[in-house]
# Entry
Amino acid sequence: MSAVIIDTDKCKKDKLCVLECPMKIITLNSDTGIPETVHNAENMCLNCGHCIAVCPYGALSLTSMKVEECHSVAPNWNPGIETIGNYFKARRSIRRFKNKTVEKEILEKLIEITAYAPTGHNSRTVEYLIFTDKEIIKELTLHVINWMREMLNNAPDIGKSMHFDMITRAWALGVDVVMHNAPVVIVAHGNKNNPNTATSCTIALAHLELIAPALGLGSCWAGYFTWCAMTYPPLRKALSIPDCNGIYGTIMTGYPIAKYYRIPKRKALVEWR
# Structure
């Protein structure tokens, strides 16, 4: 919730904020032509900042967000579809990481940019757990292995179909094919009572994974870990996540060992109507 603040000296009465507000809480004063908010606007505002972003003159602020705090958009920031397209296409799932610590400053930058990913109704319910201690990550991975062993005993058809037998045998031989000895594990979680949280976490981690290469990092979705965290109480307890929160995604990241020189072909499945 926030209140819209309008600088009448800067306002050019171009109506852009009125047209852009997704909640339609900004209107024009019929006498002055100056924007004003509707009744109870402060309780309806999403804090999305569209009004701030669209005004060329910096005439709007929110009580929660001053216009001076918001960076101006530079016209040369868009590198074009060829560059962006190739960057996206070149993304790979990384499962071999250098035995090298990822600097906290790099991870902070990664999360800072990821925070700009869209969330449903601008709810901003995505929270992150970031693990960088190798021993703790190993302990968490062991919970996944124990869960797989239980699944093989209790639901062998499912366990074998997901290769839990091979994964647990590899672990016994000292090979980690669950978290791949990743130096960093990032878990996205949030209020499970908000219907937007699960999707918002997925969107956030998708952004994070695409941002990572620009910081020299590689990453991979840790599906086994997430599945286990969602269904296996010992791992959930080890993560110490509040009872009101759900766990909706996990990314492992670090500095990649390999370089890639080709973009394998992909084809979208589309039905035009």
The chain has eleven helices and eight strands. The mean pLDDT is 96. The first strand starts at residue 4 and ends at 6. Strands lie at 4-6, 26-28, 35-37, 60-62, 127-131, 184-191, 218-221, 245-254.
